[in-house]
Amino acid sequence: MNRSLALATRPAPLTELTMPVPAEIHPESLLALPPGEAKQSLLTVHSILEARLPAGRLAIYEAGGGSTSYLPLGVLRRSHVTVVDIDADQIRNNSYAQEAILGDIQTYRFPPGQRFDLIICYNVIEHIPDVEAVLRGFCEALKPNGLLLIGAPNPKSLSGIVTKYSPHWFHVWFYRHVRGEKHAGLPGEAPFPTHFHPLVTLGNLEAFAAGHGLQVIYRKKYESPRYPEMRRRKPLLAALIDAGAKAINTLLPGKIDVRHGDYHVILRKLGS
Ligand SMILES: C[S@@+](CC[C@H](N)C(=O)[O-])C[C@H]1O[C@@H](n2cnc3c(N)ncnc32)[C@H](O)[C@@H]1O
User: Fold this and answer.
1) Is the confidence at residue 242, as pLDDT, over 50?
2) Is the distance from CB of 174 to CB of 234 less than 8 angstroms?
3) 6-155+193-224+263-269: which CATH architecture?
4) How far is the C-alpha of 250 from the C-alpha of 248, rounded, in Å?
5) Is the CB of residue 104 less than 8 Å from the CB of residue 61?
6) Beta strand 116-122 with 79-85: parallel, antiparallel or unpaired?
7) CA distance 65 to 103
8) Rounded CA gap, 165 and 116, in Å?
9) 0.90 exceeded by the pTM?
10) Cβ neighbours of residue 216 closer than 8 Å, sequence gap 6 or more
11) Which letter does DSSP use for residue 141 in this model?
12) What residue segments make up the domains of the chain, in order of their start?
């Protein structure tokens, strides 16, 4: 085994198959989202996953996993989740994966016999220097017809541009003072440093998919949940940013909304 990788296999929960999942692992990700486009898109993602994933037990690979699952409970309950994360604190924070691997998703590869029905990589690719290596790893690790769900910031949005070109200390400041997250920037806590590799741009990601046997079955750019969050917490600042965004939108050609700060994409590996 690579020296930098420590493998920690958690015993499968005793009652994994027979007991209802306790209420505390309801996807906080969904409950915590303010009403708006982000929540709506995540609900659509859930319905696609529920409809398209095969019946029975599922093998899921979560690349870069924190404490919160973005998966619908109906899927999570019948899954064996393997999480790979480079940060030991994040591995410790993760309570829903059955198997946790401390490793780098750019280089970590599963043995040939281990393939997945679903790979989820949520709020992670923007932090990765070599996204192509990550995506190649995903192509290898997916079963034919397997699904890949990516959630990421849109680098061509207002928040994407600000995040990409501002220093990390500003991200920490924003999380602490605008989002009100007191522990932001502490070990194992967001925000994490960003790289914004060119493949984070949705158009480039789709071109990569087309060239690597992946079919786009869902794509949605949506208003970042930071906007409704800010409207509630900091109405004056939000009004100022909303006005600025509206002005930029009117100046830009086409129907671009610079508030579309995030996207979801679901890809299917072609083949049988
Ligand atoms: C913003 S957090 C997202 C965590 C989780 N997916 C979520 O949305 O709550 C980014 C995660 O990516 C992990 N990460 C960053 N670079 C990584 C790499 N090269 N390999 C594995 N994990 C990585 C970080 O440790 C962190 O847990």
Assistant:
1) yes
2) no
3) 3-Layer(aba) Sandwich (3.40)
4) 5
5) no
6) unpaired
7) 11
8) 35
9) no
10) 206, 209, 265, 266, 267
11) H
12) 6-155+193-224+263-269
Q: Rounded CA gap, 15 and 100, in Å? A: 19
DSSP secondary structure code for residue 63 in this structure: E
Ligand 1 pocket, residue 192 CB under 6 Å:
yes
The response to whether residue 221 sits with its C-beta less than 6 Å from ligand 1 reads no
Cα 228 from Cα 41, distance rounded (Å): 15
Q: Give the CA angle between residues 5, 190, 238 to the nearest 5°.
A: 155
In terms of Cα–Cα distance, which of 195, 74, 59, 102 is closest to 94? 102
How far does residue 79's CA lie from ligand 1's centre (Å)?
20
CA angle 266, 270, 271 (to 5 degrees): 150
* Percent share of the chain, pLDDT over 90: 77
Counting Cα atoms < 13 Å in the Cβ hemisphere of 82 gives: 21
188 CA distance to ligand 1 centroid (A)? 9
The answer to whether residues 192 and 129 touch, using CB atoms and an 8 Å cutoff, is no
Give pLDDT, residue 27: 72
* pLDDT tier at 41, thresholds 50, 70, 90: very high
How does residue 3 score in pLDDT terms, banded at 50, 70 and 90? very low
Substitution site in 86, 92, 101 for ligand 1 pocket (most atoms within 8 Å of beta carbon): 86
The structure tokens listed for 262 are 């995030």
What residues contact residue 187 under an 8 Å CB cut-off, 6+ apart?
89
Give the β-pairing of 99-102 and 116-122: unpaired
Q: How far apart are CA 162 and CA 191, in angstroms?
A: 14
What the block records as the tokens of 99 is 């198997």
